[in-house]
Protein 1
Amino acid sequence: MRRLRHMRSRGSASAPLGREPLRRAAVVLCAAAHVTKGNIGKHVPTEILISSDPWENRVAIVEDGTLSEIYVEREEKVIGSIYKGKVQNVLPGMGASFIDIGLGRNAFLYVDDINRQPLNIGDVEITQGRSGWTIGEKVNRGDEVLVQIVKEPRGLKGARVSTNISLPGRYLILMPTGRYSGVSRKIESAEERNRLKAIMKRIRPEGMATIVRTAAAGVSEAELIADLGVMIRMWHGILESYKRPKAPALLHKDMNLVYKAARDFLTPDVDAMWIDDAHEFEKVRDFLRLLGPQYLDRVKNYDGNLFHDRGIDEEIQKLLRPKVWLPSGGYLIIEHTEALTVIDINSG
């Protein structure tokens, strides 16, 4: 699988990587994915390259010397952040309310996003709940509520929020107000799924729900307990923070791209993670001492322009060209118009 993620630019027209070129790059990476199919079941040398500066964070995953994934973050991300908000308006006709969380535009809280499963828990086995309540029975104007952003603000629209908090860890997602638990569908082994379910049944706090992430396959019960403990402490800290400030207030800020890469991408299959910013390098090492001390020796500092020296910048520029040659001898023509993106596939 080839993935490409891009967080919107700060609005600069001169930004080297815009939204549509990045979509085009994603298409090219997907089209070239078949090249590595022959390596399934074999160890493929894998490195994570992280370039960080005050303007943007970039993460590249290189498999067998070839760029396979690229992620770019150019603005402070708010999705996943948790706020103490205040209800400003309740609209029974829409089944929604507007919450002041301090971001300028009021956030949108839909009735079914109150006391139900989180919206952003990924590929999991989970049973959807049924609300059956009206918005007026759940919140009133002036109420203070604990909410998490599940969809970032866009244009004139404010963020979408939910009262169902989800806290992602390395192996688990903790849902302190959830009711249903599950295991990632990407863990295909029935035996492994049953093992993980049995462990979580023993260690899951009463009244809380958990989702076992794909990275948990094969990990020990002790590692799952440690990961769960980190998230429970985080949740208790959020609850303590909720008591102090007046609404609106930010209680918990989600990680930026650098730390998410260390949490989600650094696995036993990765040989090294290179970071070209000394400050971020030390912070990532501190982060891993808590979440993944077994990977500390794989995190290395790079003195220089990492993406330039490793040819990543050149590869990105190639991906952004309208004509892209494929290993089979064919090529793609990718053109963006106002209404759609056109992909022309030619056999050569």
Protein 2
Amino acid sequence: TAGYLLHTTITHKLVFNIHEDDVYWCTADIGWVTGHSYIVYGPLANGATSLMFEGVPTYPDAGRFWKICDKFGVTVFYTAPTAIRALMRYGEEWPAKYKLDTMRILGSVGEPINPEAWMWYHKHIGHGKCPIVDTWWQTETGGFMITPLPGAHTLKPGCAQRPFLGVDAVVLDDNGNECGVNEGGKLCIRKPWPGMMRTMWGDHERFVDTYFTMYDDIYFAGDGCRVDADGDFWLMGRIDDVVNVSGHRIGTAEVESALVSHPKVAEAAVTPVPHEIKGQGLYAYVTLVNGVEESDELKKELIVHVRKEIGPIAAPEAVQFAPSLPKTRSGKIMRRILRKIAAKDTDN
């Protein structure tokens, strides 16, 4: 446990530039690892004031988060992309009712943040002044693994940026070779780090089989990723969500970002669906901005929008409107359920 606590303390201190006079708020459920690492251990070990909250961001209204930030003078705010996208649906008038003038750093956690959500977060919550640290890590890693450092990195909307100090991250192809620039592959960690998980209770063999058999003695994270020409890491979603369409590997996160960039879309989830000719196709679930009406014309408009943003190969086979998407308590979209619905596999 000493290594885990060291990892959470150091990452929290450097990534959020924490000082003892900070009022830090992580909106996660305290029962999940984000709550353990970055509501309790990291903030308190660094002497910061850690704000705890139980509830939802839209009750009693969509200004709930921002009212709390103003009331307690929150300086560092850490939340999930799903929460940001949910609040985007209600428009910019809600954060505009509050000062939010104590904020200095914003954070994102849980899944890749869409560039459109990043820009909204930066503009309406950070007033164009607060750096956003989009952190990639897992329950198994104990703490941040890939993240920008505020003031040190040139930020890119939707990009996880660089491995944290001492983290040896690499993107490998199916043969174990390092991928080229912008070539999608599997995200792995080559060397140990202080907070790493070391076994599964009562089933060490399963632990080894899950994380260390894809490549010999290398930790496989289960995520798809690419590294751009600047050496920055872009998460493409879980490997299960990287779709092979007519021989082209497409990250569903990229298609979701294209859909969310449309002004009428608040949130989107894309899953693979079997296709007789292509092998796999793309099935899109879309939640519209409040007040926008569903129509077949809008479905066609969204498909054309994706074609323009990415290319014809990424165009969804179908678009299904959904008033909301199923999520876990930690705010992650339950893609396993959506995949089954798209494939009409609803028996289990």
Protein 3
Amino acid sequence: SSLVSSVKLPKEEGMLPPKKLKFSYAELSKATGEFSTSNMIGQGSFGFVYRGILGEGGLLVAVKVLNLTRKGAFKSFVAECEALRNIRHRNLIKIITICSSIDSHGVDFKALVYEYMQNGSLEEWLHHSNDQHDVCDLSLIQRLHIAIDIAYAIEYLHHHCQPPIIHGDLKPSNVLLDHDMVAHVGDFGLAKFLYTCQVDDVETPSSSIGIKGTVGYVAPEYGMGSEASMAGDVYSFGILLLEMFIRKRPTDSMFNDGLTIHEFAMKALPQRVMEIVDPLLLLEIRTNNSKNGCGDGRGGIEECLVALITIGVLCSMESPIDRTLEMRDVVAKLCAAREAFLSVYDLM
């Protein structure tokens, strides 16, 4: 495709030399051990992600191989190429190169090569199984840092890109953590450009859009045919924020008969927030209070958690008209919550 071949990747220091920004199928196959299942680190709607070691320098990468037999996979590949071609932000996954070729059987092969994120996905950290010994529980301040990282990434896409970009599939498995636990938002396979005529019209019906996104995180209006919008990303962020501090997936079995994670959180505001947050956070607060011999920190921390749950609830209102916060407002409120938290009790 001429669109794919025209993708120009931003120059980035510390990456591969500019003259070696293209890799063949054979090189990617070798880097991933012939796309070995032992190197598979993730899978999505349109393909699989493998850990790989590229070139003589031994650069660690993540190789996303599209399953082109899946309907929409090629469209997803083009959307991701287009979205990533000109954007650069510390909290977005960096793309190193793309590969549009044929495999060893002569079949079309499409892959995207990203920087490798050593600490995996937020999904793994929030909902790890007992056999994941290398994954620990996230502290309150770590969760807050990560939430702010994600908010900064989406705020950049919405308010600092021309035209603005809608991510369209924000969820914990699409948030990756680097060596320093800095969050990077990835997977732009459902990304959409927002042109001027759409900015203020969040409910324009479109018979072609369908429900795209992930159940539990996708904005309700998308199910009624609405176009992708900033308000849709705000909704997904709100659900993600609630999940991070309650540590329940929006699809958890406890959310049934009309009770959603949004309703659950809203009913707890403000007095009962400490009853619904992740018990591990309460344990952390008690442990630190007793260790430091201070019993007065709980009030300030409770205030911080109330602020965070309130932001999550405001972002995930059912109607887009009621979602009055934009991502720049969300960033400001989260940063204020972090400042207040650190001034009361420094857990860093």
